[in-house]
Design a protein that fits this description.
about 625 residues; five-stranded antiparallel sheet; single chain; Immunoglobulin-like; 50 strands
């Protein structure tokens, strides 16, 4: 028995050692950067870091960007250091306000940087009070930012292309407003589009909209939560999200049939929406801190939400909550089945019946630490295809009858699949990668492409495949729409647009291709390899940062640069931040530690009981 107890004890120690030595890996091209995680011993009596970020979050090179974090200590202790991990180096940060020593309430630390080339900038924050250490802006991997562009995105547009005539029919300019979605009716007669502040309905024979809806509060221009729009097969119903509002329209009026506001309950916007072909059902994939609930620890905890409606009422039929942004959503033709996908930390593929918010399919986590970004379901709902992002880039085919994928295709260098298409009959799948410019057509019967193309030095973020699978349209960083023919692979048409092509839709009859420009699809990811450095003859100074909410157990708010005040003393409008959740990252180590500790305790108790019985037997007087 003593040997068994010894073995159990050694196993527990090994488990704890494995947890303590766990490390984070960052994929930077082909190189893997390893970052050791803090051990439980290192985080004892630690300070608290909050609201780690970079401002502005996106922009051009040669602009001055500020990385900042709030340092707090419950005992008011000054930091031994506050550092930023920045592209492999630990760099000391400075106080924004040199006279602020109120460490109990919070002191802001900053680091300023002027990039001179487009590329990834990985960062996280670390601080010590001399006793324990804390980090922010890292879960499984560091944050990446700012997102750097070569363009200022001031020439966005909606473009309609006639496939048969191989020409652009018309263009509609939206200026600085990014296009969050384009959707054509099956017969190609109507085109619905959504931008940062507007919703448009076009008769495809004219470039002037039939009507325009203007939102009083729209989407942040330059944000990754882009909203979305979809139109019914006959073009009669249009469903869209813009800001915190979901809106259903009839084609005859820009006045919504109904409007559902997510403000107060669902703090974030939507990544995408869907409407069934018959126009009777609508769904929205929400992001960035959905409805609040109470966690097991008794703290308020945000959940992201998938919402389902029927056209006759703005009250949802049901909602499904999880921790992780819902990145995409798709209906079978009659709305009987729904496919959706989630980001970190959930990272799963889902298939639902509209009759219940209990998933028919809830896959295992499909990636290590990257979102599952794309989801499309077949017309009859029997199959769904999903695409995952950087470091774990792949295409997955699922049947609604199994939580295991039918097959998986891993992209070269694990490049992100941010662009995906699926024919209604589920026969053909189209996919494109952000890195490498790879374009594929698959049969559902095999994970080996039946066609493939490569567009050199281009990252692709938009795609659709014709309903009969005859051709595929893609777009990306070269500001072009490329069209490839399945039966004639060498045939390639291309059309020039003003900005990055972020949205593409093909009408069901295959006649028209609609495209929209934006930068949303390549947020959080470098899109240019081996970019050349430039000499910054002038440094661009950004506009002053707006008031930002700072969430923590004391509920404080940063009201001025470097000044942190109790929330009870101020009544400011809080600007929502899309933050990564740190609590889930701790779940696995806690579970392992608890399990190991429990085994050790049980073994010890058993050992003591047996030892006592042996002692009693040994000391028993002879008869």
């Amino acid at each position: 028995m003593r040997k068994i107890i010894t073995i159990l004890f050694v196993l527990c120690i090994l488990l704890l050692t494995i947890v303590s030595l766990a490390e984070t890996k960052i994929y930077s091209g082909e190189e893997i950067i390893k970052i050791p995680q803090l051990t439980p011993e290192e985080t004892k009596d630690a300070p608290f870091l909050d609201n780690g970020k970079v401002y502005p979050f996106w922009g051009p090179v040669c602009m001055r960007y500020s990385y900042s974090v709030i340092y707090k200590d419950k005992k008011g202790r000054a930091p031994e250091y506050v550092k930023i991990y920045f592209n492999g180096k630990m760099i000391d940060m400075e106080k924004e306000n040199l006279t602020d020593n109120n460490y109990k309430e919070g002191v802001k630390y900053i680091y300023k940087f002027v990039p001179n080339k487009i590329g990834a900038n990985f960062y996280y924050f670390e601080a010590s009070n001399g006793t324990g250490k804390a980090r922010d802006s890292i879960i499984d991997s560091p944050d990446n930012g700012p997102v750097l562009f070569s363009s200022d995105f001031s020439k966005n547009e909606i473009v309609l292309i006639d496939k048969e005539k191989s020409k652009v029919i018309w263009r509609y300019q939206t200026g600085k407003e990014w296009i969050g979605g384009v959707s054509l009716s099956d017969d190609g007669k109507y085109l619905a589009a959504q931008s940062s502040y507007h919703i448009y309905l076009f008769d495809t024979t004219k470039s002037d909209p039939l009507w325009i809806y203007e939102a009083d509060t729209g989407l942040e221009i330059g944000g990754d939560v882009k909203g979305g729009i979809d139109i019914s097969a006959d073009g009669k119903n249009i469903f869209a999200t813009i800001g915190i509002r979901a809106l259903l329209f009839n084609k005859d009026s820009n006045k919504p049939v109904w409007e559902y506001s997510t403000g107060g309950q669902v703090a974030g916007g939507a990544y995408n929406v869907a409407i069934s072909s018959d126009g009777n059902y609508m769904a929205s994939a929400m992001a960035g801190g959905g409805e609040s609930g109470i966690s097991q620890e008794g703290q308020s905890q945000a959940h992201d939400v998938l919402i389902l409606w029927k056209a006759d009422s703005k009250e949802p039929l049901w909602k499904y909550q999880t921790i992780g942004n819902f990145h995409d959503v798709s209906f079978s033709d009659d709305g009987s089945y729904i496919a959706t996908a989630t980001g970190c930390p959930d990272r799963r593929a889902y298939i639902f019946s509209r009759d219940s918010n209990e998933p028919l399919v809830r896959s295992e986590m499909l990636t290590r630490d990257s979102p599952v970004d794309e989801s499309i379901i077949s017309a009859d709902g029997s199959f769904a295809v999903f695409g995952s992002e950087s470091g774990d880039g792949a295409v997955f085919l699922f049947s609604r009858d199994s939580e295991e994928p039918v097959w998986k295709f891993i992209t070269p260098y694990n490049a992100s699949v941010r662009a995906l298409g699926f024919t209604p009959d589920s026969m053909y799948i189209g996919a494109a990668t952000m890195f490498g410019g790879n374009v594929y057509i698959f049969s559902k019967d095999s994970n080996q492409p039946i066609n493939s193309w490569n567009i050199k030095n281009v990252s692709l973020g938009a795609l659709d495949i014709a309903d009969d699978g005859s051709y595929i349209a893609v777009g990306g960083t070269d500001n072009k729409v490329h069209i490839f023919d399945r039966n004639n692979p060498s045939q390639n048409y291309e059309f020039e647009l003003n900005e990055f092509v972020g949205e593409i839709d093909i009408s069901a009859d295959g006649k028209y291709i609609a495209a929209g420009t934006s930068g949303s699809v390549y947020f959080f990811e470098t899109i240019v390899d081996n970019a050349e450095e430039i000499k910054c003859t002038e440094i661009i100074e950004p506009e002053p940062e707006k008031v930002t909410a700072i969430s923590d157990d004391k509920e404080t708010i940063e009201t001025e640069p470097g000044k942190v005040t109790s929330k009870s003393d101020i009544n400011e409008t809080e600007e929502h931040q899309v933050d990564k959740l740190e609590r889930p990252a701790l779940i696995l180590p806690i579970v392992i530690f608890s399990s190991a500790f429990s085994v050790l305790i049980v073994g010890l108790i058993v050992y003591l009981i047996i030892s006592k019985r042996k002692n009693k037997t040994t000391n028993k007087p002879p008869l």
